[in-house]
Amino acid sequence: MTVTQLSTFVLVARLGSVGAAARALGVSESAVSQALTALRTHYSDPLIRAPAAVGCV
What is the dihedral of CA 34, 1, 27, 21, to 10 degrees? Predict the structure, then answer.
């Protein structure tokens, strides 16, 4: 776990998406996802849960 990974996590939480955080950081979405994956692995927890899907009528 690094300060960069934690900062990335906080930015994703504040901005609401991996894409928005990637743009703010000037990195790829893949780089942000890798940072989140490293934190998930370190803490053995999903950290961020995807919102529930809304069913179609």
Answer: 90
- Helix/strand/coil (H, E, C) string of the chain? CCHHHHHHHHHHHHHCCHHHHHHHHCCCHHHHHHHHHHHHHHHCCCCCCCCCCCCCC
Tens of pLDDT, residue by residue, the chain (57 residues):
899 999 999 999 999 999 999 999 999 999 999 999 999 888 887 766 665 555 554
User: By the 8 A CB rule, do 21 and 34 touch?
Assistant: no
What pTM did the predictor assign?
0.77
- In the chain, what is the straight-line distance between the N-terminal and C-terminal CA atoms, in Å? 43
**Inter-CA distances, 47 with 17, 37, 55, Å:** 13, 9, 24
